[in-house]
């Protein structure tokens, strides 16, 4: 397993070793995201995606206080507009992590998820939050605005009024409000966050792997298509899955009242 400076990566024992745990590891800087974190995260997600034995990943933050308190303001303060533009600063996140990771992954938000931290959490397939989690897009206070999808993903998740209020005031949303607003799938006690996230990941990792990728693809299509187009995509993917060995096994296992044994094809 690669040796990283700013993150740790672990293959967990859950689901016979099929769960990857990625932890942002700059606790003194509240796991602020800098260029090194970006580079290492992209590498870790690519390795997760490429490893056929890994079937679900969890991304969390180290320490008790933060998932990630945003992009590293100290690094950004040194940059001129031309640097942001010419380096295409932070732009690869969306394409490299979101588009290339076809397998499921969960964000386990253990504290502050602000700015780029909130945006990173929203790139996950879903968020499980500790009751201490706090979400926000406070970039306006720094004279800027969300740059990694916050204005788009937050608005799609919680609607215009709340997203607009959060972007314009920079106020944070606590875990209870985030669950009520559909930003997070579930809120759990702080101490059991990782256990709950890993348990959920193990549950996903024990599903037929091709069907997991297909379910993710279908749900994501809802954000990119009209209803009619989305329904066609859903039907086509269903029809493809119907030809899989795992479909035959899954239905036989149901009829024979036993657990399915998946081939992932
Ligand atoms: N960057 C760098 N260091 C940070 C940081 C951050 N975002 N957040 C916290 N830290 C550091 C603090 O500087 C402090 O370090 P020392 O002073 O001890 O060396 C340490 O973490 C502990 O923080 P505090 O002392 O401030 O802790 P508190 O409990 O008092 O406050 C806080 C916690 C989370 C409320 C506070 O730290 C805070 O407000 N942090 C900043 C939150 C924020 O504004 N986040 C948004 C950053 S802007 C782009 C794409 C994306 C982005 C930009 C461009 N392109 C595509 C172009 C993203 C932008 C952002 O995320």
Automatic annotation (TrEMBL):
Question: InterPro entries this protein is in?
Answer: ClpP/crotonase-like_dom_sf, Enoyl-CoA_hyd/isom_CS, Enoyl-CoA_hydra/iso, Enoyl-CoA_hydra_C
Record keywords, A-Z: Lyase
PROSITE patterns, from UniProt?
Answer: ENOYL_COA_HYDRATASE
Gene3D superfamilies membership: 2-enoyl-CoA Hydratase, Chain A, domain 1 (3.90.226.10), Lyase 2-enoyl-coa Hydratase, Chain A, domain 2 (1.10.12.10)
Question: Where on the tree of life does the source sit, at the highest rank?
Answer: Bacteria
Q: Does the keyword Transport apply?
A: no
Q: Which family does it belong to?
A: Belongs to the enoyl-CoA hydratase/isomerase family.
**Protein name (Swiss-Prot/TrEMBL):** Enoyl-CoA hydratase
Organism whose genome encodes this protein: Pelagerythrobacter marinus
